[in-house]
Hints:
By secondary structure, this protein is an all-alpha fold. It has helices spanning about 10-20, 25-55. It is built from two helices and no strands.
Amino acid sequence: MKLxxxxxxxxxLIVIVVLLLFGGKKIPELMKGLGKGVKSFxxxxxxxxxxxxxxxx
Length: 57
């Protein structure tokens, strides 16, 4: 599996593109939605792991 390493210039470029596409006012809304999505994904993964543990017992 290849790891993704981003340098300083790549991160700056991504931030500039995001600002141009969405504008400064939409960024907090996008990050809030992204945070909720990540939390939901983690909860789902933890639920699956708990089910596997219960099945082993």
